[in-house]
Design brief:
The complex is a heterodimer of chains A (189) and B (105). With 189 residues, chain A is mainly alpha-helical. Chain A has eight helices and no strands. The chains are: A mainly alpha (189), B mainly alpha (105).
Chain lengths: 189, 105
């Protein structure tokens, strides 16, 4: 299991905000929410692939982080911590969804959860192909590949966020890459 | 195209698949988080931070002041006691014809 990151915080405003929140000044939490909201929503969306769910998950992640901020060291970076919380919450939603699908949709095809308005950016053919190729991967490979390729996290960060070993992350990523290369062969030749 | 080039190009294209929350969504999330935080009772750690820490700090200050006072009081009373003892002990003893005579100062 990967170690919890203890990298020191290079943003003095962030350290100060965390310290103030710990002392009971909830207003200081706004700084952290505004700094990380976009990234947190993007991580959640890349796992659950639904804008409304991603918004709810981001909100829940920030509330959970606030409730447990007493355990957080002020000089640590807030980012890896909130990313880990939102990843875990998103994975729980997926688990719940899979169970629900298994029970409900034994005869029918699973409903497409992706909102057409969600993918504002995927207008080009290439992006659409890459997106479809990523979506076709098995669940864990898909999540690891999205966190790595789309969100730009490295192996150790993904391992921490998903509570996996770095070796497992590497293995998922390697399988995902091979499949993506096969699926996108014509695009990248 | 080798593996490295493939990955570079794939990363470049995949990065554009990041979800960009619009301004309405970010404002909505911030507002809801603020609302939920305000509505909930303070956690144990926040309660400690708000109330017990200042109380503990005040009590520590009082205890320190008391300690310093006691030390100061003991020192001053010890100094006067030593002076008294010295005064009591510093008598003059004289011997004359086999008899001892003591005179206190």
């Amino acid at each position: 299991m990967a170690e919890v990151t203890t990298a020191s915080n290079d943003d003095p405003l962030e350290s100060r905000a965390i310290e103030r929140v710990k002392r009971g000044d909830s207003g200081a939490y706004d700084y952290l929410v505004s700094k990380y909201t976009k990234r947190v929503v993007s991580i959640a969306w890349n796992i659950v692939r639904n804008a409304a769910d991603a918004e709810d998950l981001a909100q829940e992640a920030f509330v959970r982080a606030y409730e447990t901020i007493g355990r957080f060291r002020s000089n640590e970076r807030f980012g890896p911590w909130i990313y880990r919380i939102v990843t875990n919450l998103s994975l729980d939603v997926l688990k719940h969804r899979n169970r629900f699908r298994h029970e409900e949709l034994t005869t029918a095809e699973p409903a497409e959860r992706r909102d057409s308005a969600d993918l504002q950016a995927t207008t080009s053919e290439i992006m659409d192909r890459v997106d479809r190729a990523l979506e076709s991967l098995p669940e864990m490979q898909r999540i690891v590949a999205r966190l790595s390729l789309v969100e730009g996290f490295d192996h150790s960060e993904i391992a921490q966020m998903m509570k996996l070993s770095e070796g497992t992350v590497r293995s998922h990523l390697s399988l995902a890459r091979a499949k993506l290369r096969e699926k996108l062969a014509d695009l990248y030749e | 195209m080798n593996e490295e080039q493939f990955l570079d190009r794939l990363r470049e294209d995949a990065r554009r698949l990041r979800y960009e929350a619009d301004a309405f969504m970010t404002v909505r999330i911030a507002a809801r988080v603020r609302e939920r935080i305000a509505a909930q009772p303070p956690t144990v750690s926040l309660f400690l931070a708000r109330w017990l820490r200042p109380i503990a700090a005040s009590m520590t200050a009082v205890a320190l002041a008391a300690c310093f006072s006691i030390v100061w009081f003991e020192r001053t009373s010890m100094e006067s006691a030593t002076f008294d003892t010295l005064s009591a002990d510093s008598g003059i003893e004289l011997s004359y014809a086999g008899d001892s005579y003591r005179v206190g100062q």
